[in-house]
Amino acid sequence: MGSTGVRIAIDAMGGDHAPDEIVAGALRAREELGVEVLLVGDPQQIQSKLPPKTNLAHVEIVSASEAIAMDEEPLSAIRRKPKASINVAMDLVKKQQADAVVSAGHSGAAMAAALLRLGRLPGIDRPAIGAVFPTMVAGKPVLVLDVGANVDCRPKFLEQFAVMGSIYSQYVLGTPEPKVGLLNIGEEDCKGNDAAVRAHQLLKEKAGITFIGNAEGRDVLSGHFDVIVCDGFVGNVLLKFAEAVGEIMLQIMREELPQGVRGQIGTAILKPNLRRIKQRVDHAEHGGALLLGVGGICIISHGSSQAPSIFNAIRMAKEAVNNQVIQRIQSQYQSVQQESG
Fold first, then answer.
1. How many angstroms separate the Cα of 113 from the Cα of each of 9, 79, 88, 119, 160?
2. Is 33 strand, coil or helix?
3. 3-class secondary structure, 140
4. Which of 34, 61, 170, 286 has minimal Cβ neighbours within 10 Å of its Cβ?
5. How does pLDDT run across 240-250, given as a tens digit for each residue?
6. CA-to-CA distance for 5 and 79, rounded, in angstroms?
């Protein structure tokens, strides 16, 4: 497949399985998605993970002499290690030598590097990490944000998340008129703490989005909402709980399928269905979460990501680039602000 011209900078040193799985996922993306991949990190380690006779067309190794460990304080590490792989990858986007960044490394470091090097978009106070969840309606995902960037959120931040999430849902996920919900402990307008009540009022009055009210925990995966906003503390707990539920479902399915010849025949018959179930509930199929609100496309993958997750994260980055998410947030957010006075 020829290159689409989309260039993705990949933090090859980030994650529990770096650089092996990162390189493998990037090479698959190069072949199947037609993107150009820039593998950022220790050239010798990266080179050693390339299979013999690898076609290096549309593959570039960018040297980075340092890496940020998962136990380091993100902001100080970003400043102390200017040649860290995540910093070098962000600089490639800043210099317009790459269109997006994908990292499975320290999520806090990725966010800090994005803020320091790419900056916030005009009108955005805080960036948010948006994660795509499956729902009970096939082919209808829900975008939840924030899932970890901001532990505490003012109502105004949630309002901005709703605008950015609606744009992403509409143009990348293909939802014509995204329905927005506020994660809360009840459906009534008066439910929740003071911040939740004030956020509900702001969202209700917000021009340019379709706010349909509070979403309780049981509503998140119902398919009734397309975008759900919450603070990063609750969102991160929700994300990791959902990942665990997906893993448990897959494990139960493996354990409960009959053994022996009978099991082999049954599994063969059910294989297409099982594959579709895995695609819907396995978090690896979604690749990662998009950091919305910064001046570039940045996908943050799970620290335990393996090649399939990295492939899907690169796919997500490519879709965000092709659908001009940054430009749409800039132009449409500004127009929404003007309409609301």
1. 14, 9, 9, 9, 21
2. helix
3. coil
4. 34
5. 888 787 777 77
6. 32
